[in-house]
Amino acid sequence: AADQTASVLILCAMMELDLMKETCQLAILDLGGLEVLLNLLDTNDIRCKIGSLKILTKISQNVQLQQTIVHMRGLQRMVNNLDSPVKELQALAAETIANVTKFHRARRTVRQHGGIRKLVKLLDCFPNSADLRANMEKDLEVARCGASALWSCSKSTKNKEAIRRAGGIPLLGRLLRSPHENMLVPVVGILQECASQETYRVAIQTEGMMEDLVKILKSDNEELQMLCASAIFKCAEDQQTRDLVRSHDGLKPLVSLLAKADNKQLLAAATGAIWKCSISMENVAMYARTLSSTVVLFISPPGLMEPHGRTC
């Protein structure tokens, strides 16, 4: 029980705690602190909302707290704050949603309360305004956090369709050309999740995103490489997509990833993409001409997915 200034000071003091420590997270829950933090999201004081979300963003990585936040209708309050004109508040709310939506009920709750549409809106980080340059960094951070939340939500089939209906595909295509790796990771993550649906595969093909995915495949970031390879694996059901991968010189980078045998997720994604691309005989011919020794060298060790190795 305190006025707004005292509440802000208390929140600042809480930020000094080791909020990533499980004992601290559970203490906040046991002492009723989580309910207080969520209630602050309903106030009109921006400072209290930001302070509360800074704490919630950290402690919401605890599985038990994630479920309790959903039970206490915390996600609805976070979704409501996505409409705020304050960029920092939008980013923190989206980042916390990304942490909490690790299970089906949470993802459904976000969709049912209009959260998908609001998160897609955050991806439009290039508004036509006079102070675009001054706000660019804040806008990009809001878009990154929005993309992270959508990535987490996109593991639900209905949410994938909701993202498409909200106009998310062209915005994702635009962000796919971003030079910032921390932006690309959630964007490519969304695309590789949604590429299981035909509508997204067609859009990736028609919007020219395959060329961008191949370019990103050549980066040094292994998480990005894994996500791109996984997206190519899902998209390469179609002959035209397989041709696009070859025409944009994507076959050689895929094979080069097989050298990273210590990263099993990356290895599985790369072998899957190579397997699917090998359905086209033109791609097989290219492997035979220029890459056959590399393919044999890295696919022959045991432990890889058998269909991938056998097809290659």
TrEMBL record:
Pfam families: Arm (PF00514). This is Armadillo repeat-containing protein 4. Coiled coil: none annotated. It comes from Characodon lateralis. InterPro entries: ARM-like (IPR011989), ARM-type_fold (IPR016024), Armadillo (IPR000225). Gene3D superfamilies: Leucine-rich Repeat Variant.
